[in-house]
């Protein structure tokens, strides 16, 4: 399989990335987390694209280039609506792969029956996203904005302490510099658990993926999410929350591809000619 090209696109009015893949592979739709854009999925798309997977990563409303005012009144249901617009435009039922807040959105997409399978990567739970003691000092400056539902953007120091703790020091400023403002209302919904998903309505296969050193979504929450859906849990030792770009991210992406091939009975990729 030749090196796949990750191409910029626009889907349902949202900025997006695509890889072509092959016709016998289900479409993978990547759903990004809070403060992030769809762009960090590019490496995952290239890795999975080499195995023939067709991949799409799409943004959401009023984020890249819009500043804090664009997300002032946004809720998680708005983001779910954006994702459904993308799925409608794609005109097929994809596999959804959601990271963090994107994992919670993916759970709702599964509840609505709009995906063929779901992979939840360090997912926010259906319920309270309880803070860990190690994260509290860095989180405290954000609390007033969260409680008031105001747009917020964590400092680089906060990100280093909570989200990027397993990312090499040399990469942290770059990653933080690409973050965008997030809706305080969205974050408030997550920490108070007011956005819920009915597990009894989820009929598709699910996989939960996480890291043992995640300071956003604890191992306890990862296990609770897997138990809630009766899903498998793949836990990676020594990994944090930013699994998209931490060392070893390619192994995680490849493992997800292997799980999808087995679960969806997809043929293994043809060997690359030497």
List keywords for this structure.
single chain; 274 residues; alpha/beta; Rossmann fold; 8-stranded mixed beta sheet; 10 helices; 15% strand
Structure description:
The chain is built from ten helices and eight strands. Helix 3 (101-111) links the parallel strand 5 and strand 6 (117-121). It has one domain (7-263): Rossmann fold. The chain is 35% helix and 15% strand. The protein has 274 residues and is α/β, with parallel strands linked by helices. The chain has an eight-stranded mixed beta sheet with strand order 1-2-4-3-5-6-7-8, with helices on both faces.
* Number of separate strands: 8
**Widest β-sheet, arrangement of strands:** 1-2-4-3-5-6-7-8
Instruction: Give the domain tally.
Output: 1
Number of helices: 10
Structural class: alpha/beta
CATH class: Alpha Beta
* Gyration radius from CA atoms, angstroms: 17 Å
| Low-confidence region ranges | none
Average pLDDT rating: 93
Helix content: 25-40%
Shape: globular
Termini Cα gap: 11 Å
CATH architecture: 3-Layer(aba) Sandwich
